[in-house]
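User: I'm new to structure prediction. If I give you an amino acid sequence, what do you actually give back? Let's try with this one:
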Amino acid sequence: MKPEKALIFEMSRPGRVAYSLPECDVTEIETSSAIPEAMLRRKPAELPEVCEVDVIRHYTELSRRNFGIDNGFYPLGSCTMKYNPKINEDVARFAGFAKIHPYQPEESIQGALELLYTLQNDLAALTGMEQVTLQPAAGAHGEWTGLMLIRAYHESRGETRTKVIVPDTSHGTNPASATVAGFETVTVPSDAEGMVDLEALRAAVGSDTAALMLTNPNTLGLFEKRIVEIAEIVHDAGGLLYYDGANSNAIMGIARPGDMGFDVVHLNLHKTMSTPHGGGGPGAGPVGVKRELVPFLPRPTVIRREDGRYGWDWDRPRSIGRVKAYSGNFGILVRAYAYIRTYGPEGLRRVSELAVLNANYMRSRLSPYFDVPYPGVCKHEFVLSGKRLKEHGVRTLDAAKRLLDFGYHPPTIYFPLNVEECLMIEPTETESKETLDAFIETMIRIVREAETDPQLVLNAPHTTAVKRLDEATAARKPVLNCSCGV
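Assistant: Good question. You get back a string of structure tokens that encode the predicted 3D arrangement of the chain. For your 486 residues, that looks like this:
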């Protein structure tokens, strides 16, 4: 018996049954005519013979090996993996939201349409935009949608602009989205303070500049304090300023991208506004635009008619068209609506203030043990460098693996790329001081282990079901299927 097969079948005992199926009422003749000969099973499936309680315990135990925000601290920099209130989950499951269909007549879904309309307006007010589309299904999808709007805007003016500028600290999706949208990307470096190098930006812009894609605060967790000057440089060249909303958890309720000079903005509702995410979804990436770009928004948009009823507006001749079936991921939008209604304006501001406070507290306490490439006040996240550990033969990766032994999900490592042995930490606003202190003490312990017993760190993790992987082999020869013996 193969080892992987033994693991799956180790609980099997002949004659045990977990579930009794009803007698088959399909005759052999009907079966043979309905199923192609080559697809007919010749012998019973080789399934484990176990009782129901064994099945439940087996899969429950497997589920406990998954890490999630509900069972531990998740300081994943740039991803805003914060706790999401369960009341928003309950609201999203209300029958009036969960059991309707987008193709129902407008008069039968007035409540859902009102929610979408109100959410559009809330997000526009929060970001300083004129109007918002809720169609994009994720952050990168929102980026691509925003870039297609920028392309349509320039083409409407008879201009063909081919280049999108991205800082060297940009999210990896920025240049990817620009490429998919048909643009060429131009990278500008950061200056000594971790901000956009203004001289490099001036040299990069020109008549072919379509947009600058910028995150503020940037991926180093630093606020671009010269953002107004950056906007002027781009606008003077005829380009537009695009705001990547991945880090909006730092400024929500405090500052608005529209007031900084941004023309297009996307928000990651699944990060900022209460949806558990990771593993590819679910998500929502609404896009807001200034007045000049409103005609190009995806259709249909939700409108409020003169009689007070809500409906779909398809009459948008300059629209870039639909970018997502229906109106985005509706359940995610319901959660975001509930999140905004729960907190209100002052509560949203408090969220950002606590996120910034927590990040600065952690950065201050950890700075004696790691190199801090950009000292000073950060926003909702910060970067450290683990290059000091290399003196003992330990890398940032090894420290991250050791964190698993203490029940923590590691922070983002080796990103941004311009920081050697980078650790990128985002505590979010939902964690208590006790949780932050426990994580900090664990990080300090790992530094001391690296100094006194580096092999302990190099061999980590020690307590997880899967130990240290052969990364080179995993990358070159990935196992893409499960040999489960059935």
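You can read the tokens as a compact description of the fold. Here is one thing that stands out. The first strand starts at residue 131 and ends at 133.
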